[in-house]
Design a protein that fits this description.
The protein is mainly alpha-helical. The chain has twelve helices and two strands; from the N terminus they run H-H-H-H-H-H-H-E-E-H-H-H-H-H. A two-stranded antiparallel sheet has the order 1-2.
Length: about 290
């Protein structure tokens, strides 16, 4: 149990991008264990993944609306995962140096959603895809949104490539053009989704430069969802721990908060117990 607690504490210290990367890695590994069990019982190992992949058919999206997000956590190979997560790690460091984690979440997941929508529309509109019902997985649309967002917001910033410096705007153009010209040569739906992510990243950055955050409504929705979930978890915790359910008076509360803060300064946040963390979250910010 102590090992799980240590892992939980380390995870809580990750940046939002590192948490997304960690989840992608875990969700990449878990199916291999599931597939082993299904193989031993002679069951189809592909059917359950379809519940999370994005189908090109609109009717499937209506039945499984969560797939517009969950497809981004399903990768079909190690290198597919590796390059996506490597790019996400480096571009997220640039974004999080300038913006809040909430902005990064907006850009990344709106890129995933817009990429998925463009994938669906393309399969419905272009004759070349007639009869093709291949589902899509991977986080590339979200990664592409983050890359183009940063390249648009800070176009003249430079990064070192081998023996020369290259401005971000040129890197963004290269990524976008590469996806466009690759559409006829395999993984067409995936490249179209990348283009959707790139379009979202571009317009998000341009609007932000002009003082308008186009992700504010989306941010309100996901924060409302997670706040509601957090409140339920806290309520359940205090019901299971009635000794700390009663709210202390101000003087008692302040003494306890001071003691917890003193413990953090000496031993770090990870040294706190679950009760102390919840107490600090519940009372320390009032």
């Amino acid at each position: 149990m102590s090992y799980l607690n240590d892992l939980k504490y380390k995870y809580s210290g990750f940046s939002i991008a590192e948490k997304i990367i960690f989840l992608n890695i875990i969700l990449f590994v878990i199916p291999y264990f599931i597939n082993t069990l299904l193989f031993l019982f002679n069951l189809n190992s592909k059917s359950y993944l379809e519940l999370f992949l994005l189908s090109p058919e609109l009717n499937d999206l209506i039945i499984r609306p969560w797939t517009i997000i969950t497809y981004s956590f399903v990768h079909d190979g190690f290198f597919h995962l590796f390059w996506n997560m490597l790019l996400l790690y480096y571009i997220s460091r640039m974004i999080l140096n300038l913006f809040s984690p909430s902005t990064f979440i907006n850009v990344y997941f709106l890129g995933v959603i817009v990429g998925g929508i463009l994938f669906l529309l393309s399969y419905s509109f272009f004759p070349v895809f007639k009869g093709d019902i291949s589902s899509m997985g991977g986080s590339s649309a979200g990664v592409m949104a983050a890359i183009i967002f940063m390249c648009t917001y800070s176009p003249d910033n430079e990064i070192r490539l081998f023996f020369f410096n290259l401005k971000l705007k040129y890197i963004g153009i290269l990524f976008f053009v590469f996806d466009i010209i690759q559409i006829p040569y395999g993984n067409s739906g995936g490249h179209i989704a990348h283009v959707g992510g790139a379009i979202l990243g571009f317009f998000y950055a341009r609007n932000l430069i002009n003082g308008r955050d186009i992700g504010s409504s989306f941010e309100y929705l996901w924060k409302f969802f997670f706040r509601k979930r957090k409140n339920k978890e806290e309520k359940a915790f205090f019901q299971d721990n009635p000794k700390i359910y009663k709210k202390p008076d101000k003087s008692e509360k302040q003494k306890r908060v001071d003691a917890i803060l003193d413990k953090i300064s000496k031993s770090g946040y990870e040294s706190l117990s679950d009760k102390e963390k919840i107490f600090l979250s519940r009372y320390g910010e009032e």
